[in-house]
Design a protein that fits this description.
Layout: E1 2-6, H1 11-27, H2 32-46, E2 50-56, E3 59-71, E4 74-84, H3 93-107, E5 113-115, E6 132-138, E7 149-153, H4 159-176, H5 182-196, E8 206-213, E9 216-228, E10 231-239, H6 248-262, E11 267-273
Parallel strand pairs: 4-5, 10-11
Antiparallel strand pairs: 1-2, 2-3, 3-4, 6-11, 7-8, 8-9, 9-10
């Protein structure tokens, strides 16, 4: 029988969790410094997690960690960790832990349960919607540009229309992913853009691109350099819908890779949102 008991001292679990998390970050390829930076971000909030030991007939078989927090005015919960030792796998402990975690979160008024997977989980969370996937591309050499496609800096005259479009797209991404209501998503969009690019085109360590083919505007790009040590984050690499199916998506990625190398970074990270307009 699977049972759960809250831990008073999380030290042993945290050491094990951090080792597993660091290994998964390193395996993703961005480098040791970036992996340590990501791990430090997790450490800042881990003290608020509630951790339960999973036992079977008095024997510890794993851990499950949960948290509930206010997110833009809505109580959101998260399963931060769910691990069962390989020796005890296949006995229903993971399914029981998922049920316990969901019940714990619901009892505290959370209307949504999120997870962030860094390791394969089999079919355990098949019923959950995929909001997005973080991907990292290592860049060892300059990319081959697509013939006929050019990337140039965005002009000040082009910036306002681009910003308005990006805000609308970001709101759509959030709403379609099921994270927030439309009204909440608009507020989050305004806050996030004000924080990320407070000086517009002049915001340091950001690149804003316009992609063109045969003299026609076909897309845009927005990248933040040094997002992590040695890593550029691609906030947006977008090809207009009417220009889809022509290989321009790869051209946008090549432009992002070139900008990444030019800034001195060696990896490009980006989020692929579920069911969005992103190319």
């Amino acid at each position: 029988m699977t049972e759960f008991s809250l831990l008073g001292d999380n030290t042993e679990w945290q050491e094990d969790f951090e080792q597993r998390l660091h290994a998964s970050y390193t395996a993703a390829g961005p480098g040791a410094a970036a992996a340590e930076h990501m791990l430090e971000d997790v450490r800042t909030g881990i003290s608020d997690w509630t951790v339960a030991e999973i036992t079977d007939a008095g024997t510890r078989v794993g851990y499950v960690a949960v948290a509930v927090a206010d997110e833009n005015g809505t109580l959101a919960s998260r399963i931060g960790d769910l691990r069962v030792d390989a020796l005890h796998a296949g006995r229903g402990h993971k399914q029981a832990a998922r049920g316990w975690a969901e019940g714990w979160c619901a009892e505290r008024g959370a209307h949504r349960v999120d997870i962030r997977l860094t390791e394969p989980a089999g079919e355990l969370f098949d019923g959950y919607r995929v909001r997005g996937q973080l991907r990292t591309r290592l860049i060892s050499s300059p990319p081959e540009p697509l013939e006929g496609v050019t990337a140039r800096p965005m002009t000040q005259a082009e910036y306002p229309e681009w910003l308005a479009s990006e805000k609308v797209a970001y709101v759509g991404d959030i709403v379609r992913a099921g994270a927030l209501s439309p009204k909440e998503a608009v507020r989050k969009s305004d806050r996030d853009f004000a924080k990320l690019i407070p000086e517009g085109l002049a915001t340091p360590d950001n690149t804003f691109l316009v992609l063109e083919a045969a003299g026609e505007h076909i897309g845009t790009g927005w990248l933040k350099h040094g997002y992590l040590p040695g890593v550029t984050y691609g906030y947006s690499l977008y090809i207009q819908e009417q220009h889809g199916g022509k290989g321009y998506g790869r051209a946008a990625m090549a432009a992002g890779e070139q900008a990444t190398l030019a800034a001195g970074d060696s990896a490009l990270r980006f989020t692929v949102w579920a069911a969005t307009r992103r190319q």
